[in-house]
Design brief:
The protein is α+β, with helices and mostly antiparallel strands and about 220 residues long. The protein has two domains: about 70 residues, Glutaredoxin; about 130 residues, Glutathione S-transferase Yfyf (Class Pi), Chain A, domain 2 (Up-down Bundle), CATH 1.20.1050. It is about 55% helix and about 10% strand. It contains eleven helices and four strands, in the order βαβαββααααααααα. Strands 2-1-3-4 form a four-stranded mixed sheet, with helices on one face.
């Protein structure tokens, strides 16, 4: 019997992009449902009554919420192709640590750049510090996990689409400060699972301008 798989998502969400990349890496077919974040569907509210947020993966009628939890679920259920987490427990723990670092540090700094008036420069400085730490962890490896694309890459690469917005809002260059990290992102973009999942950076910037106008920042 065919498995029913539905993804509730918003096309510009970096968290949704994580799930789309993981599904593409595994070669899994699914139904995509775009959500209007200003008018959330009854299905989304029913499937994620706690946070009422995307992404939500519905597998045979059962919801899985939160991007990292969904990506790990996908990796565990479809083990036979393109493992995202290493099998070694210590390396797994390290991957989860750096993925958590992305969510706690990179996401926070990025949001402050475009969402908090007057904090753009300071947040940009902090973002560069975080990205330099990630560059140190990457080292000379092609991907964070080594030779193969994996969990930390999935966690971070969706934000490559947001670099243009960060740079434009705070007037700085990520590539000038973190060339190895941008080279890594471009390497990831050579994978169809990534390039087909990441939204156009200019669409993100247009969306950000709309949000800023709506909440009275611009």
């Amino acid at each position: 019997m065919a498995e029913a798989l539905v993804l509730l998502d918003f096309s510009l969400s970096p968290f949704g992009v994580r799930v789309r990349i993981a599904l593409a890496e595994k070669g899994i077919k699914y139904e995509y449902k775009e959500e209007d974040l200003k008018d959330k569907s009854s299905l989304l509210l029913q499937m994620n009554p706690v946070h009422k947020q995307i992404p939500v993966l519905i597998h045979n009628g059962k919801p899985i919420c939160e991007s990292f939890i969904i990506v790990q679920y996908i990796d565990e259920v479809w083990k036979d192709k393109s493992p995202l987490l290493p099998s070694d427990p210590y390396r797994q723990a390290q991957a989860r640590f750096w993925a958590d670092f992305v969510d706690k540090k990179v996401v926070n700094c990025g949001r402050r750049i475009w969402l908090v008036k007057g904090e753009e420069k300071e947040a940009a400085k902090e973002l560069i510090e975080c990205l330099k730490m990630l560059e140190g962890e990457l080292g000379d490896k092609p991907y964070f996990g080594g030779e193969s694309f994996g969990f930390v890459d999935v966690a971070l690469v969706p934000f490559y689409s947001w670099f243009y917005t960060y740079e434009t809002c705070a007037n700085f260059s990520i590539e000038a400060e973190c060339p190895k990290l941008v080279a890594w992102a471009k390497r990831c973009m050579e994978k169809e699972s990534v390039s087909n999942s990441l939204p156009d950076p200019h669409k993100i910037y247009d969306y950000v301008l709309q949000v800023r106008k709506r909440i009275g920042i611009d």
